[in-house]
Amino acid sequence: MAGLSVDQIPLLSGAVWPSGHAREVERGRIAFLHRFNAECGDIGRLRFFRTVVVVNSPSLLHEMLVEKGKVFEKSPVVRGALYPLVGEGLFTSRGELWRRQRKLMAPMFQPAQIARYALAMAECTRRGVATWQDGATVEMARETTRITMSIAGRTLFDAETFDEADAIGAALTTALHWADETTVSLALQIQIEARQRLERLGEHLPPSWRARIARMVDALEPPLLLPGARSRELRAAIGVLDERVQRMIDERRAAGLTRSDLLTALLKSRDEDGARMSDRQVRDEVLTLFVAGHETTATGLAWSLHLLARHPESMRRVRAEVDALDGRTPGVTDLPRLTYTLQVFKEALRLYPPVYLFGRQATEEVTLGGYRLPRGTIVLVSPYGLHRRPAEWPDPERFDPDRFTPEAEAARPRTAWLPFSAGPRTCIGNHFALMEAQIALAIVIQRAELTSVGEVEPEPGATLRPRGGMPMIARLRRHN
Ligand code: HEM
Predict the structure, then answer these.
(1) Ligand 1 atom with the shortest distance to the CA of 419
(2) CA dist 403 to 279, 315, 355, Å?
(3) Ligand 1 center from residue 103 Cα (angstroms)
(4) Could you say which of 53, 249, 304, 460 would form a disulfide bridge with 348 (CB–CB 3.0 to 4.6 Å)?
(5) Structure confidence at residue 165 (pLDDT)
(6) In this structure, is residue 90 part of a structural domain?
(7) What is the full DSSP assignment across 45-100?
(8) What is the number of domains present in the chain?
């Protein structure tokens, strides 16, 4: 295969033996991403014990995620860390299983299908805002999480009230914390490395050995749980989730699959051969949707409200759109009248992309931007860095929702803005999230005047949440 070698990709300065850039990333991921942008630009190389390539230009991202999307699989780190919680759900699965499931589920997330959830989205937001006291300080990141969690509960399970106090909510929180810690654990890195070495070894052995090696490789897919309190907590949380989801599946089957929630849609769906999903697959998918959908949207909403509170002219424009509804709770037919509100959310996702970093692994040798990447190369994509390239985003730190007028969007490469990724593994819930955000933002601004309290910094964890929360003073308007 022609092309330059991977070692010719510019290496970011400052790698120290043996961990490379790992210590610097640990000290501050955001500062690191800024430094990468300034020094490497379109493509660069990092060292985290092994070489990792970072791709950071719209054209290279189009090549990687869209044109060669089939060659770049999900990163084994994310797969490993999320495995106990979401198993082989859409976010983590690969190959034929992923393809079949994506085909099966895509119709459920088309705009025409999700329109029926607008009412639930509005109702959950109204209920959330109704708990605020006039003039009191609310922790906005927590409030938007409560709202999106209850929307997820309603749309997925038709659950009336759904929050962290609920057993499922608490178990999910435990499992997510565990996944977050595991993403950066050395034990998982070692397990992944061992698995990949075994896989490679298998290729050079006689067929009689290959099956044995393949079984060992499979056994190393779920992360090994070391003895201790954290593993016990995780097992208990997974036990609760398994039991509760199975109970909901059984209830729906007993009632003849008449409900209009997503769980029922999953149970009813059939693939191209007419086969139904197993209960285990339904469980993995429903938990995947819950996990992938609620915190991402909540984080985007919190940043949108923060940015609006800091930019009175933008706030005035959103309020003008919302007040033109004459006090009506916005529904799906009002969405075309809330275009600036949607632009605000998109600009917030540009500045503070909830998924600020994601990874892929080359499943075979492949060229990217003229460089030859060996099979197994890990490639990172940072929407946070990409969204700050001055070439596509002049004066990148400035908040300006007019970057998202239809004309401005049409003039930019599509892969310049990647909060939802792109290509075959693009977010299946992007229309859902945009509709949810448009409705939720409109209702909050309709009902409350918000003032920011103090400085807020992004904290890169599982998503890009505000460090220490996002306190805001809420003065209630006449609707409440
Ligand atoms: C603002 C909110 C959201 C953001 C920023 C977001 C972002 C993303 C990103 C970046 C990916 C690709 C990750 C990767 O390639 O490693 C993704 C995948 C996914 N998202 Fe979202 N998401 C959001 C909301 C939602 C919602 C509301 C749902 C479901 C109701 C959802 C379900 C999924 C699923 C199932 C996948 C995996 C798709 C596949 O691999 O086929 N997301 N999301």
Answers:
(1) 5
(2) 44, 16, 20
(3) 16
(4) 304
(5) 59
(6) no
(7) EEEESEEEEEE--HHHHIIIIIITTTTEEEPHHHHHHHHHHHTTSTTT--HHHHHH
(8) 1
> Which protein residues touch ligand 1 with a CB less than 6 Å away?
90-91, 102, 288-289, 292-293, 296-297, 300, 354-355, 358, 419-421, 425, 427-429, 432-433
Distance 426 CA to ligand 1 centre (A): 7
Q: What is the pLDDT of residue 480?
A: 44
What is d(CA 14, CA 21) in angstroms, rounded to the nearest whole number?
7
Query: In whole numbers, what is the pLDDT of the chain averaged over residues?
Result: 91
Identify the CA nearest to 266 among candidates 254, 255, 256, 278. Answer: 278
Burial class (CB in 10 A: 0-12, 13-18, 19+), 131: exposed
State which ligand 1 atom lies nearest to the alpha carbon of 156.
30
56-65, 172-181, 347-356: which range is least confident on average?
Answer: 172-181
Work out the pLDDT band at 321, boundaries 50, 70, 90. Answer: very high
Please list, residue by residue across 208-217, b when 16 or more beta carbons sit within 10 angstroms of its beta carbon and e when fewer do.
eeeeebeeeb
CA distances from 49 to 5, 46, 80, 171 (A): 19, 9, 18, 33
Q: What is the CATH number of the domain that holds 15?
A: 1.10.630.10
What range defines the domain where residue 134 resides?
A: 4-85+96-476
The residue among 106, 130, 15 whose CA lies nearest residue 479 is: 130
Task: Report the alpha-carbon distance of residue 201 to residue 191 in Å, rounded.
Answer: 15
> Does 349 reside within a domain?
yes
Q: Is residue 91 part of a domain?
A: no
Burial pattern 300-331, b for ≥16 Cβ within 10 A else e, equals bbbbbbbbbbebeebbebbbebbeeeeeebbe
Residue 375 forms part of a structural domain: yes
Ligand 1, pocket-test mutation among 101, 351, 427, 465, most atoms within 8 A of CB: 427
| Ligand 1 centroid – CA 366 distance (Å) | 26
Count CB atoms within 10 A of the CB of residue 348: 26
Residue 349's pLDDT is: 98
Whether pLDDT at 197 is above 80:
yes
- 419-452 residue pLDDT tens: 999 999 999 999 999 999 999 999 999 999 999 9
Instruction: Provide long-range contacts, Cβ within 8 A and 24+ apart, for 96-100.
Output: 100/271, 100/272
Per-residue model confidence as pLDDT tens digits over 122-165: 999 999 999 999 999 999 999 999 999 999 989 998 876 666 55
Confidence at 172, pLDDT banded by 50, 70, 90:
confident
Question: Considering only CA atoms, which residue is closest to atom 26 of ligand 1?
Answer: 293
